[in-house]
């Protein structure tokens, strides 16, 4: 089962999730990474859930059109929209306040 490590505001949160997990859906039903993950619409329209992928990016699918539209240049810096990802492998993420508000 995938292990998710989330770094935010100087703290680290880590937990195991079931395969094919979407972290925004989990946060919405008050499961890890709730309440630590910033998110809003869950549909790729606001980019509030944007995180920098520190490890595990090689296991993710290519960015979809919503990620390309919302993240632009930040895709090249390793950012992804968590609402658009269904995790199958371990991943390490960084969510920065500036990235979440963009």
TrEMBL record:
Residues 7-85 form the 2Fe-2S ferredoxin-type domain. GO terms for molecular function: 2 iron, 2 sulfur cluster binding. PROSITE patterns: 2FE2S_FER_1. It comes from the Bacteria. InterPro entries: 2Fe-2S_ferredoxin-like_sf, 2Fe-2S_ferredoxin-type, 2Fe2S_fd_BS, Beta-grasp_dom_sf. This is (2Fe-2S)-binding protein. It comes from Ramlibacter monticola.
């Amino acid at each position: 089962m995938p292990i998710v490590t989330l770094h935010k505001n100087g703290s680290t949160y880590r937990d195991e999730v079931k395969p094919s997990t979407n972290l925004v859906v989990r946060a919405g039903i008050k499961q890890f990474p709730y309440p630590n993950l910033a998110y809003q619409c869950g549909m790729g329209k606001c980019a509030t859930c944007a995180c920098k992928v520190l490890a595990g990016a090689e296991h993710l699918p290519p960015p979809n059109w919503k990620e390309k539209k919302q993240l632009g240049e930040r895709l090249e810096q390793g950012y992804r929209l968590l609402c658009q990802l269904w995790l199958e492998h371990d991943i390490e993420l960084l969510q920065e306040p500036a990235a979440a508000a963009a």
